[in-house]
Write a structure and sequence with these properties.
Radius of gyration: 14 Å
Low-confidence stretches: none
Organism: Winogradskya humida
Helix content: 55-70%
Order of helices and strands: HHH
Distance between the termini: 55 Å
Mean pLDDT: 77
Protein name: Hydrolase of the HAD superfamily
Number of strands: 0
Oligomer: single chain
InterPro entries: HAD-like_sf
Length: about 60
């Protein structure tokens, strides 16, 4: 009997490229740079906030 089904939403069921690109555009940084930073920071922190804050300071 199956008791639970777990889906990994990020990049499996939903392509997040558009959302990352929108954040990069809003912060005024290259899309690939934001995506690389986000990919490096998120696993360690579990959140996008550190990457956004880092670019937020640089973009100001």
């Amino acid at each position: 009997m199956i008791r639970a089904v777990v889906f990994d939403v990020g990049e499996c069921l939903i392509d997040e490229t558009r959302e990352y690109g929108t954040w990069a555009d809003w912060l005024g940084v290259p899309r690939h740079t934001f995506s690389a930073m986000f990919g490096a920071v998120r696993p360690a922190s579990g959140s996008a906030s550190p990457a956004i804050r880092r670019f937020g300071r640089a973009a100001c």
